[in-house]
Amino acid sequence: MQPQGQVDVRHFKKIFILYNRYSGKQLFASMITRINEVYKLLKQELDADITLLDVKYFEQMPDLAKKAAEEQCDWVIIAGGDGTIRAFVEDMLRLDYRPYISVFPAGTVNLIAKEISLRNEPGRWVHRALKGFVYPFYTARANGSLFLTVASVGFDSLVVDNVGAVQKRLLNKFAYVLQGTQLVRKELIFSDWRYSFRVRFDDEDVWHSGSSVIVGKSRYYAGRYNLFPEAALSSPYLYAAVFPGNKRADILKYASLIALEGLNLDKDILCRKAKKVEIESVHLIEDFPVELDGDVVAVTPLRLEIMDRPLLLIP
Question: 5-137 has which CATH code?
Answer without folding.
Answer: 3.40.50.10330
